[in-house]
Design brief:
Length: 184
Amino acid sequence: MTSKTKKTDPHSLQELIRSERSKEYVQYLADEVIGDNTRTFAELWRLVREGEPPIPQRAVWILELCEVNYPKLVKPYLGEFIAQLEHADHNAIQRHLTKILARHEIPEKYRGHLYDLSMKWIASPRIHVAIKAHSMDIACNIAMGTPDLEEELAFVIKDQLEFNTAGFKARAKKVFKKMKRPFV
């Protein structure tokens, strides 16, 4: 394993990310190098948005692991995460960002756009199943308590069941249970 010195300047953070990509090392970067440091987290987010591949894909994995232990770190960035979803040039970025967004209360001003994007991705044959699964969770969280949206979500999911994987179906079943609807 690479040296675990706690360097957090932008160049050093990028080099630390580039140096190794084992799960243990990525967890170390999330816990020890980034931790709850808002400045270092901001630099990590900058690398997701502006870094040269493969840095963004690796950085977003670390970002998601930081969110697990320090969920308050991401709150100021939720709008930026949503904006980045459509412009991400790698599915890893979409996968990790949708996973993060599925675990957070989405501010009202972003809900309509994010709901529409989630519905589009659930129905798209080009989107990876993990992104679809997180999109189902996001759409469900937004739709809860709004019968028309719940009905629309249920319809789109049912429509996609025959075209998708066992993972899609398993998540769909959980979403239906959360919405207190019978699963097909």
